[in-house]
Specification:
- This protein is α/β, with parallel strands linked by helices.
- The chain is built from 21 helices and 35 strands.
């Protein structure tokens, strides 16, 4: 459509267009990288425009003016989210932050709780039917535009045309300013590549093929995506698309084929990235842009099965309270989409949320996991909403757990130099027992090499990993679930009580070198349950004593043999040359496991009904995995 022919009366220069704005107006401006830069500059430069209240989601261009006293005397900025460009202005009190869930901002406009007189938007040139596109800025722009008395649009050929709710006819725009300029771009550079890679490795373990992802604002969630190239058929339902998605889109990792709701489409509301990303989504039917009150509605989010929300935080306290928008009394970002997606993922069948954050800030001087949030810090996500927390030191599962367990989970993934301090602070607050042993100060990243899984004939999968301090409660439940005979075979007497002191000493004893304990877990709904436990402990210079216990339902399935192989591999790395084991003579199944794995083992009978089995590694020619015998301990 030729605008000069169709509506020449609407075509104005940017200066003449903004002069239509009356003094005292409440002006909405399009979001983020889709903001109409030329209209903003013109509005600021026309000095006759006075006493303007500006509402915007993410602002960039205004950062060029906020240090000018003349600007701050004429304009009052009210932002729903503080972008990196506007943080200094926020620190200095030059703008007003409006805390709001992103899904609810359109209703603030629709209900007239926030009245709007003018909307400044940016659109693509119209098609032959007269429809322009809001392109990469649909989120709250649709509502802002619909509720303003006067709509002025910058028509920019650089704005992509996107499919979905972002189409607006030229008849619904009061004035049009044709002005071509590059869109705002957001550079994508990780701040600490090593930390990002470590966090990504843990998150990668939590994301299954076919999952639908939401990725929140921030450089960390963005770069986590770049480490998911090994996944298949991921789907996307998210507020914002960034450059982190591009490699997965181009490599066919994101297909949206497994999505049960709006399949084959990336459902989104906003795009912030590079020119390459904008070109990729131009007229691309894979991208389906909807308004924020749809994309971020927890009830809509929950329709997606297996939806995983990934977002970040500034700090988290030992009870699970999360701050995302302020550093103490200083407002830093915003609530944004985190709470909407955390609650939506919790209602999703098979869904859950992940909060990812580095363990420290300020160059490692302070811990982001803290006994209590900083004075003045706001709670964006409550302790009742938090699910999984990930740092570069591991994964903490908090949902459904008490304060005691939360403390241990979070201390375990804190930076090693802060773990003892966190435990001592928790003791002062009576979150944990006074005799609680703090987690090891080791960096346990190497334990990732000791994780594996075993597929059973029943089609169940048993996951194996080293025992951690946070497993204390799960280990207790495991021991109490065993039958009396199984307990007798393991401990040689009919043990009735598995005290907290005993279990705490068990994990405290594990140094992951001279002593090691492996647990086997199966999925039970949204949580994992321990069904097997195997360990070795030093019994001399180069000999370790080994022992196993397997839950009755899983005996005879090869779990003991599998753990024996795992422990042998780890023991060899730590310079051990043989295992020994003390077994009751009637425990034929366990003796048989040892003999199968170590054909040259020697058996020495004792005087109390037990035998000692000596198993040298160098003579081992054990069975193939498919030949594993029954095991019972």
């Amino acid at each position: 459509m030729n605008l000069e022919t169709y509506c020449p009366e609407k075509l104005l220069t940017s200066e003449n267009a903004v002069k239509k704005i009356k003094n005292g107006s409440r002006v909405f401006i399009g979001t983020g990288c889709g903001e109409p830069q030329q209209l903003i500059r013109a509005m600021v430069e026309v000095e006759s425009i006075q006493d303007i209240v500006v509402y915007q989601m993410l602002s960039s261009t205004f950062s060029q003016y906020v240090d000018d006293p003349d600007f701050t005397s004429r304009f009052s900025l009210k932002l729903f989210f503080i972008s990196v460009h506007m943080r200094q202005a926020a620190f200095e009190g030059k703008l007003d932050y409006i805390p709001a869930y992103l899904s609810q901002i359109p209703e603030l406009f629709d209900s007239k709780q926030i009245g709007l007189d003018v909307a400044l938007i940016q659109v693509s040139p119209p098609d032959r039917f007269g429809y322009c596109s809001l392109g990469i800025s649909v989120d709250i722009t649709v509502s802002g535009m619909n509720n303003a008395s006067l709509v002025i649009a910058q028509v920019n050929p650089c704005m992509p045309r996107t499919w979905g709710d972002g189409f607006v006819h030229v008849d619904d725009i009061d004035f049009l300013v044709e002005y071509e300029e590059p869109l705002v771009e957001i550079p994508s550079e990780p701040k600490n590549q090593e930390i990002v890679e470590r966090i990504s490795k843990y998150i990668n373990q939590l994301v299954d093929n076919g999952s639908t992802l939401q990725v929140g604002f921030g450089h960390l969630p963005n770069f986590v995506l770049m480490h998911m190239t090994n996944k298949k058929d991921l789907g996307i339902h998210t507020q914002v698309i960034t450059d982190g998605f591009l490699p997965l889109l181009k490599k066919g990792v994101i297909t949206n084929k497994k999505k049960n709701y709006l399949p084959n489409r990336v459902v989104t509301s906003l795009c912030m990235g590079s020119e390459e990303l904008y070109e990729f989504m131009d007229d691309n039917p894979m991208f389906y842009f909807r308004a924020a009150d749809f994309v971020n509605d927890p009830n809509v989010i929950a329709i997606n099965d297996n939806l995983i929300s990934i977002s970040s935080a500034l700090e988290i306290d030992l009870t699970g309270q999360i701050c995302t928008d302020s550093k103490g009394y200083i407002f830093y970002s915003g609530i944004g989409d985190q709470v909407d997606f955390i609650r939506g993922s919790k209602m999703s069948r098979g869904g859950f949320s992940i909060i990812a954050l580095p363990s420290t800030a300020q160059g490692g001087k302070v811990s982001r996991i803290v006994p209590h949030l900083s004075e003045g810090a706001g709670v964006a996500t409550t302790r009742g909403d938090v699910d999984i927390v990930v740092t570069e030191y591991g994964i903490a599962e908090l949902h459904g757990k008490g304060i005691y367990q939360r403390v241990m989970e979070l201390a375990q993934i804190a930076h090693p130099k802060f773990r003892e301090w966190l435990i001592e602070e928790a003791k002062k607050r009576h979150y944990i027992f006074g005799d609680q042993i703090p987690p090891s100060k080791q960096d346990l990243m190497f334990l990732e090499n000791y994780k594996s899984h075993l597929e059973l004939e029943s089609e169940k999968t048993v996951e194996f990993r080293p025992l951690l301090p946070s497993d204390e409660f799960a280990t207790r439940n495991f021991y109490y679930s065993l039958q009396e005979s199984t307990v007798f075979y393991r401990f040689f007497y009919r043990r009735k009580i598995f005290s907290r002191e005993m279990l705490q000493k068990q994990w405290a004893f594990v140094d992951y070198h001279q002593n090691m304990t492996i647990i086997g877990m199966v999925q039970r709904g949204k949580h994992k349950e321990i069904v097997a436990l195997g360990s070795y402990g030093s019994a001399g210079k180069d000999v370790a004593e080994v022992a196993f216990v397997v839950k009755e339902d899983y005996q005879g399935m090869g779990l003991g043999t599998y753990m024996l192989e795992m422990l042998e591999k780890i023991a060899k790395e730590n310079k051990y040359k043989a295992f020994i084991a003390t077994v009751l003579s009637e425990n034929k199944a366990m003796i048989n496991v040892f003999q199968k794995r170590y054909p040259h083992c020697t058996i020495k009978r004792g005087f109390s009904g037990e035998v000692e089995v000596y198993m040298p590694f160098d003579q081992n020619s054990g069975p193939e995995k498919e030949d594993r015998e029954e095991d019972k301990a």
